[in-house]
Every structure is written in C-alpha cells, then in structure tokens.
Design goal:
Layout lengths: L12 E2 H15 L3 E5 L9 H6 L4 E3 L4 H13 L3 E7 H4 L4 H10 L5 E5 L17 H6 L5 E3 L4 H13 L4 E4 L4 E2 L16 E4 L4 E5 L4 H15 L3 E5 L2 E3 L3 H10 L3 E8 L4 H11 L6 E6 L9 H7 L4 H13 L3
Parallel strand pairs: 2-3, 2-4, 4-5, 5-7, 6-7, 10-11, 10-13, 13-14
Antiparallel strand pairs: 1-8, 6-12, 9-11
Helix pairs in contact: 1-7, 3-5, 8-12
C-alpha cells in the first residue's frame, strides 16, 4: 500500500487514531504543521500530538468560530493548518467562517470534523452532525471527504497535507476494519474506491457506512448468489462522476448509503447527477430520514434506520424486486 504506518494499519483502530498518528508523522518532518483545537484534543486523539509537539498546537477553547478564523490566519501565512473540532459544532457554529475565512478567501485549511454523524449516540440530536454534507456542498471551493477505513484515513490525511486548497474531512469514533488487504489498492481524493465488483446492484456508500454495505453484499452473494458492487465514495465533493456513470451503465440498480440526512448528502448528489444524465434504473437513498432522530448508540441508530448488513440487504432485494 505504500503506507507510512503499514504495521499499525494491520490492526483495526478508530480512524481518528490513525489520523492522529499520521499527523504526528507529518509534524516530525515539518514544523509548519499546526493543529488548532476547540477543547477537543482528547476526543480528537491528539493528546500524544500535543505532548510531542506543544509548540505546534493551538488551543482556542470552546470557540469554534475563533478556531476556524485562527486556522485561516495561520494557513494564510504558510502554515499547514489542521482545525479539529466535533463535526456537529464545526459545521454549524462556524459555518460563516468556513464560508468566508476559508473557502471564499482560499485559505488551505484542513477542517477536521470529529465524532461525526451519530457517533455521539445517546447525546442526541444536538451532538449529531447529519447536516454537514448538505451545508458544505453548497459552499464553493471546498472538498468534502469521509474516509471509510484506516487505510483511507491515512491516505486522505497525507494527500490533504499536500493540498493547496480548503478541505473538510469527516471522522467517526468506532474501530474500522480494513475494507480490503489488496496490495494493489489505491486511494485518490476525488476518485471513488471500488471495494467489491458486481453487476446486479451497486452500493455507493461513504464513511463508516461502507463496511455494513460490504457485509450486506457478501450476505446477498452467499444467500441469493447476487453479485453486488460496493464503492467507497469517500469524496462527496467533487463527486467521481466518471465512476458513477460506469456504475449506472453496468448495475441493474443503485443504493446509496450515508450516516447523514437523506436530504442534501451523498444520495442526493448522486441522484441529481444521474437524473440529469438520463438515468432511469431503480435507485434508493439509505440514510437518516427527515425526522427527530432516535436516541441510542451508533449501532442502535444504524440498525433502526436500516444502515446494517440485514437492513441494506433487504433494501437491495426490495429494489431489485421492483424490476420483476
């Protein structure tokens, strides 16, 4: 894979731990790497970074608007700024600063949304970030990325480090298994990653929903002999429309999966592009519906809304049955 953390990546870890380790690796060779946090070094797994590189960390306290403003200022002076904060607060409280100080001003800040989606579980809707894709997709000059596993996380951070434009990266909390151990696998920002090939239906998922989609595909193969493609569409913006067109042409149906509202996220981005390019096959968006979200752990919420091996397998079969 060409990883800087190959040995560590053989063990399932939360993506945030890989993010922190990769950031430490970068900071070792570049004093311009600066982390800005809003009282979130603990939840962001950045305590080891702060101990090793105390002069390369800025703590602004619980002040997300200041966080983004400071990060933009540092980026404008040539610093490799990583602004780390819970996704629910970063993309809501500081939306104006993201829009103006970062994107409009073209300051290459790496915005890191941690504990995203429903990772905070029982803390409820105030701490869920089910709006971030929708809000940030509407802002020009901002890439949006949600890595699925440890490998994608490491590669996304390495590539974001070299990127000279604004980017938002979204991470959850739970340990994520490697989707594939193929040594020829590759990751490129802006290009979806084909995890599994198949012609009967395509799951297009992002972030921590890719793994249950893969489990559902394997279940459908073993129980129904269906060949299901699984794609990690880690980059929500810019969307990999070339891959999307390929999937539309070769799969009988498409199911998108995301830990986000069904409004304004990956599913609607895919639907908008496909409909405007004459796609007429069955299509379904699986995500969090437009309602008061149930309270529970991430896995309980996933199971409730069908973002699970069984739920996604059922959704795929239902969609395929509409064709008979």
């Amino acid at each position: 894979m060409g990883n800087v953390l190959t040995d560590d990546l053989q063990v399932t870890k939360p993506n945030l731990e890989v993010f922190s380790a990769t950031l430490q690796h970068l900071a070792t060779g570049d004093r311009n790497v600066v982390v800005i946090t809003s009282d979130s070094r603990g939840s962001g797994k950045l305590v080891p970074f702060g101990k090793k590189y105390p002069t390369q960390m800025v703590e602004v306290g619980i002040a997300e608007q200041n966080l983004v403003g400071v990060a933009a200022g540092l980026a404008s002076t040539g610093k490799k700024a990583f602004a780390v904060s819970p996704a629910c607060f970063l993309t809501a409280r500081a939306l104006e600063q993201i829009k103006n100080d970062v994107a409009y001003s073209d300051n290459p800040v790496r915005l890191i949304g941690i504990s995203a989606g429903v990772s905070y579980g029982a803390l409820g809707s105030t701490h869920h970030s089910l709006h971030d894709f929708a809000a940030l997709r509407a802002i020009n000059n901002l890439k949006i990325v949600a890595p699925a596993d440890n490998y994608e996380t490491e590669q996304a951070i390495l590539q974001a480090y070299h990127l000279d434009q604004p980017i938002y990266l979204r991470f959850g909390k739970k340990p994520m298994p490697l989707l594939t151990e193929d040594s020829t696998d590759s990751f490129t920002l802006g290009k979806g990653r084909v995890v599994r090939r198949g012609q009967d239906l395509a799951f297009i998922a992002t972030g921590e929903t890719v793994y249950p989609a893969l489990m559902a595909a394997q279940k459908l193969k073993s129980e129904r002999n269906l060949d299901i493609a699984v794609v990690s569409m880690h980059t929500i913006k810019p969307l990999d429309t070339e891959l999307l067109q390929y999937l539309a042409a070769n799969a009988k149906a498409i199911v998108t999966v995301e830990e986000h509202s069904i409004n304004g996220g990956l599913g609607e981005a895919c639907a908008s592009f496909l409909l405007q390019h004459d796609y007429r096959k069955p299509f379904k968006i699986v995500g969090i519906p437009d309602e008061y979200t149930v309270t529970g752990s991430q896995i309980e919420i996933f199971n409730h809304y069908g973002i699970s091996e069984v739920g996604l397998a059922d959704a795929a079969l239902t969609l395929l049955n509409t064709m008979t």
